[in-house]
Amino acid sequence: MVIFGASGDLTARKLIPGLYELHRRGLLPDRFAVLGAGRTGMSDDRFRRTMRAALQDGGDGQPPPELERFVGALHYQQLDTGSAGGYGKLAERLQAVDAAAGTGGNFVYYLATPPSLFEPIAGGLAGAGLAAERDGEWRRLIVEKPFGYDLESARRLNERLHAWFTERQIYRIDHYLGKETVQNVLVLRFANEVWEPLWTRATIDMVEVTGAEQVGVEQRGGYYDGSGALRDMVQNHLLQVVGMIAMEPPAHFLPSAVRNETVKVFDSLRPIDPSQVVEQVVRGQYTGSLTTDGALAGYREEAGVPRGSRTDTYVALRFYVDNRRWAGVPFLVRTGKRLPARVTEIVIHFKQVPHHLFGTPPASVTSGVPDPAGAGRRVASVSAAAAEASKLIIRIQPDEAIQLRCNVKLPGAGFAVRQVAMDFRYADLADTYLPDAYERLLLDGMIGDATLYARADAIESCWEFVTPILTAWRERPGIPLHGYPAGSWGPAAASGLFERPGHDWHSPMPSLCEPGGRVEM
Ligand code: BG6
Questions:
Q1: What rounded mean pLDDT belongs to the chain?
Q2: CB of 232 sitting under 6 A from ligand 1
Q3: Is 330 helix (H, G, I), strand (E, B) or coil?
Q4: 283 C-alpha to center of ligand 1: Å?
Q5: In the predicted model, what is the mean pLDDT of residues 489-499?
Q6: Residue 75, CB-side half-sphere exposure with 13 Å CA sphere
Q7: Where does the pLDDT of residue 194 fall: very low under 50, low under 70, confident under 90, or very high at 90 and above?
Q8: What separation in angstroms does the CA of 123 have from each of 120, 158, 196, 410?
Q9: pLDDT at 364
Q10: pTM assigned to the model
């Protein structure tokens, strides 16, 4: 595996730890080597020391033998990505490492670099004869995000990469597809006959997807300010999750079949007309606030962020999947930085019962019935409470779980109804190890399984949906950018995306601060 951007943060934080975990679990072949390439000049030794330190972070400082074996397979080559000569030297070094490790001329190139280098590196590899596959030797290119900046740039990047690599060789990573719980959406749906008949507009009222982050932009203000929440999280990760929720069952579990079905979902997304952007999309930016944990800085006070920035750190949108299964069902998707918690979850809201049989109990019990959970306490006003609609909550992270909320009869007089939860937590599975998303995807890339990687047409289709929103924001600065206090659940305006009065976002936990101080910016 040749890692471009080897001296960068992603390599130390995700790629090398992911590879090491695969090694520890016996999933890497004996004949394996890493050649790190980067602008920084570094010896093999220094690269190994740095990576060893990254792997030992938090450990007791005693390297186990398998760590030493793994670190011994790491190599480093300085590369000026802009010079053709650099790729010649890289090719020589690669040949030497390949011969020593016995890796048979099979190379995975991982582009863990800023996106401006994707094209030059792919072209440089091709120029040095390292792109084309021959004599049973394979060459694959894993491309990090962001893949494009809008529809046009994504198309151009696909075109450029296709000049040197075939689509079969290109693996566009979206680490959300590597998450066990995202993959489990497919198993839950297609390995249980109980759900599939219910998984339609006939029974489902709406679908909610939340990707909330507690952190702010941390040290990435410079990058983030040119991106924003819609590009950073929705165009890729959250639409991929929607793809899993909404797709038709594939005929078999092969990359082409699965990816064909997700592309059909993206192609069915009803475009949001620029005139509808205000009604269907709410954008926000966090402002400084005082929370129970102390003061939190506003986005414009973060390092690398211009003081007058109008970048979205929060976005919520309502859209529709125009096909037979989902016609008329609203999909509500939101994501934001500096929300009260890190939680990614899907909430499938089932329809209300058409007739509330238990909504109006006889007068004799309206004074309250004993609450089984609360010693002697009585449940107030059961008379008015019509049964709440059932929900299926799929918690992607953290505390990975599935919860079905449905109504039961409260024991005692009358027919008081209460919503209860039946749940399954991954943590309850004996011996479960939830691999990091990168670990899974790195392995898939090496064994040539592209099922969980995004195909060119899928990426373009997602950009096609998102780009008109970005254009409307750019061209019509009057579209509000709502301020929301760091630590709150985002702009109150996002509640207005629900079509029916009384509906609101499912909030897994309360705000950390008073949600007042709503400023329109
Ligand atoms: C990345 C985004 O792709 O995904 C980050 O660039 C974001 O801004 C991250 O924090 C979220 O990933 P996860 O796995 O922590 O939900």
A1: 91
A2: yes
A3: strand
A4: 18
A5: 95
A6: 18
A7: very high
A8: 5, 13, 45, 67
A9: 36
A10: 0.91
Dihedral (CA of 270, 196, 397, 401) sign:
positive
How many angstroms is it from 174 CA to the middle of ligand 1? Answer: 10
Determine which helix (DSSP H) or strand (DSSP E) holds 166, and give its type and residue range.
none
Mutation pick for ligand 1 pocket among 182, 227, 232 (CB with most ligand atoms within 8 Å): 232
Question: Is 94 in contact with 130 (CB distance < 8 Å)?
Answer: yes
Residue type, 360: T
Which residues participate in catalysis according to the annotation?
237
The response to whether residue 205 sits with its C-beta less than 6 Å from ligand 1 reads no
Give the tens place of pLDDT for each residue, 458-472.
Answer: 999 999 999 999 999
Q: Is the pLDDT of residue 284 over 60?
A: yes
Binding site membership of 180 for ligand 1 (Cβ less than 6 Å) = no
Instruction: Quote the ligand 1 centre to 213 CA distance (angstroms).
Output: 8
pLDDT in tens, 257-283: 999 999 999 999 999 999 999 999 999
Nearest atom (ligand 1) to Cα of 220: 8
What confidence score (pLDDT) does residue 308 get? 95
**With a 6 A CB cut-off, is 144 part of the ligand 1 pocket?**
no
Q: What band does 419 get if pLDDT is binned at 50, 70 and 90?
A: very high
Distance from the CA of 467 to the center of ligand 1, in angstroms?
20
Q: What whole-number distance in Å separates Cα of residue 418 and Cα of residue 415?
A: 10
Domain locations in the chain as residue ranges: 2-144, 178-346+396-403+416-431+453-512
- The atom number, within ligand 1, closest to the CA of 223 reads 6
Query: Which residue's alpha carbon is nearest to atom 9 within ligand 1?
Result: 233
Q: What is the CATH number of domain 178-346+396-403+416-431+453-512?
A: 3.30.360.10
Q: What's the gap in Å between 491 CA and the centre of ligand 1?
A: 21
305 in helix, strand or coil? Answer: coil
**Same-fold call for 2-144 versus 178-346+396-403+416-431+453-512:** no
Tokens found for residue 236:
């890729």
- Please name the helix (run of DSSP H) or strand (run of DSSP E) that holds residue 223, with its range, or none: helix 221-225
Does domain 2-144 fall into CATH 3.90.380.10? no
Binding site membership of 213 for ligand 1 (Cβ less than 6 Å) = yes
pLDDT tens-digit readout, 111-129: 999 999 999 999 999 999 9
